[in-house]
């Protein structure tokens, strides 16, 4: 029955092309990996691990209070993080947070300029839209293969895979937010003689802030969704316990790791969502509660 099909396999050609690319540019990618590890991920991870929990928990509580202005939310989030420590997962929590912070910073560094550029160029938007569609729909393990070939196992491929996965919503929502700014407001600013950069930073970005913050929130949530997959390729953290629980049929360990990831997701979601609204709205919400 299979004799009716033509042999159209491209596996050998793709493997040959990727291997040639790795041989030609391997040193460049090793330099990137060294920079990310030496100057970003490892120092941040060490700093977080060296910070005592009795310092970190009040600091996070203050951040939550500054974002939400709701004491009940602050108490719930702080108790949730304390529960992670009580599971014996505090160090792994800090490793996961370090990976997420660096991944989020890289996503912002790439996604915000791309979204701003995309909002001002219809041609670029037409080019990037299908690329972003592919990035969002492509199964994670598909783009892990070339990343692993370029960087090997470890934290760097996990970091870059997380960035690829988290980038599209930030780019899309930044573009959408700027495009939805009222044209009359932009024209009014232009009539006062403002430059393009002044209009961008003084008018468009502030008015697009809710959309951009929603994109940042989605990017962070998608980065957190990569925690378990990242643990499969050498990144340590909370996903390590979930993976170990699955591999060893240790349901208790897997459940604790999964619950810790859920708590961290709730903490990050509540804080980033709160910063997505204006300060006055947060204060009004706090008064009503």
As residue ranges, the low-confidence spans are: none
Oligomer: single chain
What's the order of the H and E elements? Answer: HHHHHHHHHHHHHH
Largest sheet: none
Summed up, what is this model?
With 289 residues, the chain is mostly helical. Helices cover 85% and strands 0% of the residues. It has a single domain, classed as MetI-like (MetI-like fold), CATH 1.10.3720.10.
What brief labels describe this structure?
MetI-like fold; 14 helices; mainly alpha; globular; 289 residues; Proline/glycine betaine ABC transporter permease; cell membrane
Overview of the structural elements:
This protein has 289 residues and is an all-alpha fold. Helix content is 85%, strand content 0%. It contains 14 helices and no strands. Helix 7 (155-179) runs antiparallel to helix 10 (209-225). The protein has a single domain (13-288), classed as MetI-like (MetI-like fold, Orthogonal Bundle), CATH 1.10.3720. It is globular.
Which helices and strands occur, and which strands form pairs?
Layout: H1 11-50, H2 53-68, H3 71-86, H4 90-120, H5 122-137, H6 140-151, H7 155-179, H8 183-191, H9 196-207, H10 209-225, H11 227-232, H12 238-247, H13 251-275, H14 279-288
Helix pairs in contact: 1-4, 1-6, 2-3, 2-13, 3-13, 4-5, 4-7, 4-10, 5-7, 6-7, 7-10, 8-9, 10-13, 12-13
